[in-house]
Design a protein that fits this description.
heterodimer, A: 209 residues, mainly alpha, Rna Polymerase Sigma Factor, Chain: A, Arc Repressor Mutant, subunit A, 2 domains, 9 helices
Chain lengths: 209, 82
């Protein structure tokens, strides 16, 4: 997105927020239209359940409306929307039975005393294209992301999936930029390891006819 | 000369293009001598792409879209009554 485009979007957003604060119900429709897909997608990726994501989206839209006068514009309006979405999703997740988290450290690369990688690394990056659009691959990827510990998952979803900047993610989560980078890197390492098991099987020479 | 561990620690910034030229050169020098780290680099990159392409396809299903529209309509009627 170009700088001018971003600037325009920001101005439109600010005007909508002012209208909504003034009690204009049409502005509410526009805001809902602009944000509902983002809210739904993020909450769905966190909870992986359509009904829950629908509930959260409704709740967030309602909160935006009810609390619009508490929004002071200290951060971007979109950051505020993401924060409300995350809080609502976490509340919902907490009310459900939770699967125990895997320790991320077990899945990070290991090195010998000389600093060399200990495990054999296979390069499966060239063989993913034909597999990408199969349902099985999609399920493997979703499962791997679901297994990410919460701290790494939220950073990964906002930055790598939503495509927000590191600075924006740090604003939303109230973290420093280095903390965002470190969590994202750990998250990617975890996912790489999880996906390796699957793709190595398909790219191994033994599997070829 | 950097080792594999340092190489992996630097991957994030390498992708961002935010490494200093000197560090970048040492890293690329390491890649030349270390096929496992190249494999790691390629699969690290693929992981991000694969996950993004799988997860950013999410659309609101039609029935949810309808439910949300009704919800907003109801809510607006209530607001007008207040």
């Amino acid at each position: 997105m170009s700088f001018t485009q971003q600037k325009e979007d920001k101005e439109i957003e600010e005007a909508l927020v002012r209208d909504l604060q003034a009690g204009n119900l049409e502005a509410y429709d526009r805001i809902a239209e602009l944000y509902q897909k983002k809210i739904y997608a993020l909450s769905f990726n966190l909870m992986r359940n359509q009904m829950d994501a629908q509930d959260v989206t409704q709740e967030v839209l309602l909160t935006l409306f009810r609390k619009i006068n508490t929004f002071q514009g200290k951060s971007a309006f979109s950051s505020w929307v993401y924060r409300i979405t995350l809080n609502a999703s976490y509340m919902k997740l907490r009310s459900k039975k939770k699967e125990p988290n895997i320790s991320i450290d077990e899945l990070l690369p290991s090195f010998n005393g000389a600093g060399f990688q200990q495990e054999k690394i296979q390069d499966w990056s060239g063989s993913t294209e034909s597999l990408l659009f199969t349902n099985e691959t999609r399920e493997v990827i979703k499962k791997a992301v679901d297994l990410l510990p919460e701290k790494e998952k939220v950073v990964f979803l906002l930055r790598d999936v939503e495509g927000l900047s590191t600075e924006k993610v740090s604003e939303i989560l109230d973290l420093t930029v280095p903390a965002v980078k470190s969590r994202l890197h750990r998250g990617r390492l975890f996912l790489r390891k999880k996906l390796s098991g699957y793709f190595e099987e398909y790219s191994s020479p033994k599997g070829e006819i | 000369m950097i080792c594999c561990k340092e190489c992996i620690d630097l991957l994030f910034d390498y992708f961002e293009g935010s490494l200093e030229q000197e560090t970048k050169n040492s890293l690329e020098e390491h890649f030349q001598d270390c096929p496992p780290c190249i494999a790691f680099l390629n699969t690290y990159k693929s992981t991000t792409t694969l996950c993004r392409e799988t997860l950013n396809q999410i659309e609101i299903p039609d029935e949810v879209r309808r439910a949300l529209q009704n919800f907003l309509k109801e809510h607006k009627i209530q607001q007008k009554k207040m």
